[in-house]
Amino acid sequence: GATVEVDGATVGFTPTVIDVPVGMRRVRIVRPGYRTLEAQVEVREGAGARVDAVLDPLQRVTAASRASEDVADAPASVTVLTGEEMRLLGFTTVADALNGVRGVSVRDDLSYTLLGVRGTTRTSDVNQRLLVTLDGHSLNEGQLGYAPVSRDLLADLRDVERVEVVRGPGSALYGSNAFAGVVNVVLREGDARPQPGVAVAADGTRGVRARAGASGTLGPHGGWWATMSGWT
Question: Which residues in 157-174 are b (16+ Cβ under 10 Å) and which e?
Answer without folding.
Answer: bbbbebbbbbbbbbeeeb
